[in-house]
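User: Please look over both lines:
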Amino acid sequence: MYNLHMKTFKEKVCAVVAGIPRGKTMTYREVARRAGNAKAARAVGNIMNKNRNPKVPCHRVIRSDGDPGGYAWGRAKKVALLKREGAI
């Protein structure tokens, strides 16, 4: 039977990212793992790049090597947001 309450991978990713507290970060890989697919880090990046929901703080998702990575509004803005929040 089809479960109407099942979340899509995108919904799971957004829920994980929405739970990242101010001043903290999480890697794309960790978000993917927590959303149920540890090998989908690139998909997480694509989902975050298209995110326009202010309740999903996509700027708090960074690369595994500690580099901030990309951001739809530019890398400089992502770094500024992370600095303002005390994450870097």
